[in-house]
Amino acid sequence: MSVVERQEWDVVVIGAGGAGLRAAIEARERGARTAVICKSLFGKAHTVMAEGGIAAAMGNVNSGDNWQVHFRDTMRGGKFLNQWRMAELHAREAPDRVWELETWGALFDRTKDGRISQRNFGGHEYPRLAHVGDRTGLELIRTLQQKIVALQQEDHKETGDYESRLKVFQECTVTRVLKDGGRVCGVFGYERESGRFFVLEAPAVVIATGGIGKSFKVTSNSWEYTGDGHALALLAGAPLLNMEFVQFHPTGMVWPPSVKGILVTESVRGDGGVLRNSEGERFMFDYVPDVFKEKYAESEEEGDRWYEDPDHNRRPPELLPRDEVARAINSEVKAGRGSPHGGVFLDVSTRMPAETIRRRLPSMYHQFKELADVDITAEAMEVGPTCHYVMGGIAVESDTAAARGVPGLFAAGEVAGGMHGSNRLGGNSLSDLLVFGRRAGQHAAAYTAGLSGARPPVDDIEVDTAAAEALRPFSAEGPEPGLEAGRPPENPYTLHQELQQAMNDLVGIIRREGEMEQALEKLSDLRVRARRAGVEGHRQFNPGWHLALDLRNMLLVSECVARAALERTESRGGHTREDHPTMDRDWRRINLLCRLSDPTGGPETWDPVVGQIALTRETTEAIRPDLLALFDKEELVKYLAEEELYE
Ligand code: FAD
C-alpha cells in the first residue's frame, strides 16, 4: 500500500483560472472549506492570457443592448446548438458578474462619462466587451486572487490560520477523481516539483481545467492544456458533449515558426483592423454566408462608416463569428492569395494613429515587436488560424453545473460543454467562467452541506491503483500483453509531436471522412505505443514524466474529437466537413455524447488497439417558446428542423 498524505476538505476545485477561482470564492463564502489545485503557478492560467474582454450586456456604450440581444447573438454564434438554458443564464447574469468584479477592485477602461467601457467583437450586435486595454484576463485573475487573499485574511482573524478555509495547492497535477461506489469522494494528485503523491478527500469536486489545445500542433494554448479535466470526467463516468466542436481562432501569428499559433486578439478587428490578401483585397466581403447577409455591410465604405455610426450602417464582415473568418482565411491561403508565410494580412497601421494603437493594443504592439520584429503601427501583421478553444466538454446540468451521472462532480468554464453550442463568440468565455464558476461553487457547497450520514470514504485500493498508474512510465520497458515482447520504451515527446501533427492535419479546421478514419488509426497506433511511454530518472523535477501522464488525457480527448467529428455529417460552427459542406437543420436536434466503453478499467487494462470511446446520439432539449419568440420566424427557418418549427 502506498503511503500517501491525505487531507479532508468540503469542496475541491481543480483549476485556478477564472472558473476555478470564482467557484472557490463562492464555495468558501457559502461556508465550505475549499481547496484549489492548479498545475502551474497560482495566477498563471489561460484566463490571464485573455486579451479582448468580458462580454456582458450592460448597455454602457449602446443603450440598445440587453440580455435578450446577447442571448440572440450567442445562439446565432453557436448555430443554435447551445444548451439554451446556459445561454440564457449567461446573458442574464454576466452584467452582475462584471459589476461584482468591480466591487472587488477590478479597474476597467472607462467611457468618457465614466462608465465601464465596452468594445466591439465578432458576432456581438453592440459594443459589449468590458476590457482593460488588451490585458483583460490579467485584471480578472488579479481581482479574483485579491478576493481570495481577502477571504484568507478574514479566516486568519478568526482561526489564526490563513489557509483554514481556503487553500491553494499550486504546481500540483490531479490524475484521478476518486469515487466511492457511484459518488465522488476526492482526488488523487502529485506535486510537480517533488513528485510526492497526495489525496484530498472531499464529497464535491469542481473540474475547471480549461481546454485541450495542446493536442494540436498550431495552437494559442499553453503547455497545461492537455484536456486533463475532460479525461478526468470521462474516467469518473461522466459523458462529454459535442467534442467535434473545436474553435480555430482566425488570427494567430504565423511567423516566425517558434511563435506560430500565438494569439492575435480579435480586438484588433473590433477596433478597426482589416484583413487583406496578397492582392490587397478585403476578401471578407466575399465570404458572408446567407444566414448573416442582412447583418453585415456590403461595401467597404458602409463597413467603415459603421465604426462611427453603428445605428445607420452594418458592421464589416471582418467581425463575423470566428468560424466564418477562419474558414475564409483558410480558403484565401489555399487559393494562392496568402501572405509570404502562409497567412493573410491584418492591418491596423493604416486605420489608426500609432499612438492609439499603442494605447488600445499594447500587448499586440509588444508581442509583434519582440517576437517577430514587426511594428504594427507601421506595417500589417501576418496571421492565420490557430487552435484556440473547445466548445465541447463535460455534459452538465445548466442551472447547477453538476456533471451528468456522477453525484458530487461539477464542471465550469472551458472544460464544460453546452454553453457555446458549435462556436463561441469572443468575450463569451470570460463571462461564462464567472457565471458558471459561481454556480458550480454554490452547488458544490450545497451538495456537501446537504449530505446526510457519513461522507463517502476514500478506499486505499483506489489510491494504490492511482499511484500505480502514475508510476507506470518508470517501468515502461517490457512485454506487452498480446503485443510484441521486449520492445524499448517510447519517448513521450515523440508521441506528443506525432499526436499534434495528426490532429492538426487530419482533424483540423477542414475535415474529410477518409482523413478522420486515418486519424483514428493513428490514434490506435499511438495508444499502443503510449503503453510503453517511458521516462528515466525519478519523480523530482521530471517534465518527461509529467508529459507521459498527460498523454493518457490527450489520447482520450483526441479520440472523442475524431469520433464525434466523423459522426457529424454536416458543417456547423467549429466543425467543417469538406464532404458535407452545409449546415443540416436536422442535425440541430442532435447532441453527440462520448463515454468510456469500459468504465471499470483504465489504460493499463484496456486493449490499446481498440478505441476506448463509445459514441451515442441524444436529442437536444426543445428551446423554450419565450426564448424562441426573441427571433424572427424567417431567421428560425434557417436553423430549426421542420418539426421544431411546427411545434
Ligand atoms: P483556465 O484559465 O484555462 O485555467 C485552467 C486551470 O486548470 C489552470 O489553473 C491549470 O493549471 C489547471 N489545470 C489543468 N489541468 C489540471 C490538472 N490535471 N490538475 C490540476 N490543475 C489543472 N476569452 C474571452 O472571453 N475573452 C478574451 O479576450 C479571450 N482571450 C484569450 C486569449 C488567449 C491567448 C487564450 C489562450 C484564450 C483567450 N480566451 C478569451 C479564452 C479564455 O481565456 C479561456 O477560455 C478561459 O480563460 C478558460 O478559463 P478556465 O477557468 O476554464 O480555465
TrEMBL record:
Bilayer-crossing residues are none
Q: Please list the residue ranges annotated as the FAD-dependent oxidoreductase 2 FAD-binding domain.
A: 10-430
Name of the protein: Fumarate reductase/succinate dehydrogenase flavoprotein subunit
Q: Does the keyword Electron transport apply?
A: no
Q: Which InterPro entries match?
A: FAD-dep_OxRdtase_2_FAD-bd (IPR003953), FAD/NAD-bd_sf (IPR036188), Fum_R/Succ_DH_flav-like_C_sf (IPR037099), Fum_Rdtase/Succ_DH_flav-like_C (IPR015939), SdhA/FrdA/AprA (IPR030664), Succ_DH/fumarate_Rdtase_cat_sf (IPR027477)
What Pfam families does its record include? FAD_binding_2, Succ_DH_flav_C
User: Is-annotated flag, keyword Flavoprotein?
Assistant: yes
**Keyword terms of this UniProt record:** Flavoprotein, Oxidoreductase
Identify the species of origin. Streptomyces bottropensis
Annotated Fumarate reductase/succinate dehydrogenase flavoprotein-like C-terminal domain ranges read 496-593
Q: Which NCBIfam families match?
A: PRK07803.1 (NF005866)
